[in-house]
Write a structure and sequence with these properties.
Elements (H helix, E strand, L loop, with lengths): L7 E2 L9 E2 L3 E6 L22 E7 L3 E2 L5 E2 L8 E4 L5 E4 L5 E6 L3 E4 L2
Antiparallel strand pairs: 1-2, 3-4, 3-9, 4-7, 5-6, 7-10, 8-9
Keywords: Chaperone
GO cellular component, one term: chloroplast
Protein name: 20 kDa chaperonin, chloroplastic
Length: 111
């Protein structure tokens, strides 16, 4: 196992308390809509996987060639748009969906 294979430190039984490592961030995934804009009700299998969420925690940043930490461009509380198939997905103790991904997988900060 390489250091890069470890995504974070979990000090409790709940994913929301994870401390991401290096350039990784923990995001609380936005809920998928139950209805279309036209008012059609969607089943669980037809809901589109959301790619928007709120940053819960950020790692300290990656190391540059000189061994200095490079701060991340997002901070906790930011709403972000991220690559749909990036990162590792986890379910919190309360059933909330979370994803851990690299900050480079964030395509835009929405707020």
């Amino acid at each position: 196992m390489k250091e890069d294979d470890i995504i974070g430190i979990l000090e409790s039984d709940d994913v929301k308390d994870m401390k991401p490592l290096n350039d990784r961030i923990l995001i609380k995934v936005a809920e998928a809509s139950d209805k279309t804009e036209a008012g059609l009700i969607l089943t669980e299998t037809t809901k589109e996987k959301p790619s928007i969420g709120t940053v819960v925690a950020v790692g300290p940043g990656s190391l540059d060639e000189e061994g200095k930490r490079q701060p991340l461009s997002v901070s906790p509380g930011s709403t972000v748009l991220y690559s749909k198939y990036a990162g590792g997905e986890f379910k919190g103790a309360d059933g909330t969906n979370y994803i851990v991904l690299r900050v480079s997988d964030v395509m835009a900060e929405l707020s």
